[in-house]
């Protein structure tokens, strides 16, 4: 029975691993595939890269149940709530009194003292 060859490619550093997982997730999203660790690993392997398995698991958990398209386009679902909050707080802000200008307190100027610097600036 033939043994599978051991992968001898070096493991990518953190930044490269994150980028590889990000691009792999985008490729899977674009292909309407489910974003799971095994598929991320397949795409990364096809790109001739090698990452720690933890990275694919982290990305799977981070994107699980999320709509990648909404993340890409900035639709987080909080925009209507933010608009409503802004609209309801606007009348309350208008009703609030304008703050009174701060009173300036003049401090009595103290005369400067001559300090002996030991001949530093002589």
TrEMBL record:
<dbReference type="Pfam" id="PF00428">
    <property type="entry name" value="Ribosomal_60s"/>
</dbReference>
<feature type="compositionally biased region" description="Low complexity">
    <location>
        <begin position="79"/>
        <end position="99"/>
    </location>
</feature>
<dbReference type="GO" id="GO:0003735">
    <property type="term" value="F:structural constituent of ribosome"/>
</dbReference>
<keyword id="KW-0689">Ribosomal protein</keyword>
<protein>
    <recommendedName>
        <fullName>60S acidic ribosomal protein P1</fullName>
    </recommendedName>
</protein>
<comment type="similarity">
    <text>Belongs to the eukaryotic ribosomal protein P1/P2 family.</text>
</comment>
<feature type="compositionally biased region" description="Basic and acidic residues">
    <location>
        <begin position="100"/>
        <end position="109"/>
    </location>
</feature>
<dbReference type="GO" id="GO:0043021">
    <property type="term" value="F:ribonucleoprotein complex binding"/>
</dbReference>
<keyword id="KW-0687">Ribonucleoprotein</keyword>
<dbReference type="GO" id="GO:0030295">
    <property type="term" value="F:protein kinase activator activity"/>
</dbReference>
<dbReference type="GO" id="GO:0002181">
    <property type="term" value="P:cytoplasmic translation"/>
</dbReference>
<dbReference type="GO" id="GO:0022625">
    <property type="term" value="C:cytosolic large ribosomal subunit"/>
</dbReference>
<feature type="region of interest" description="Disordered">
    <location>
        <begin position="74"/>
        <end position="122"/>
    </location>
</feature>
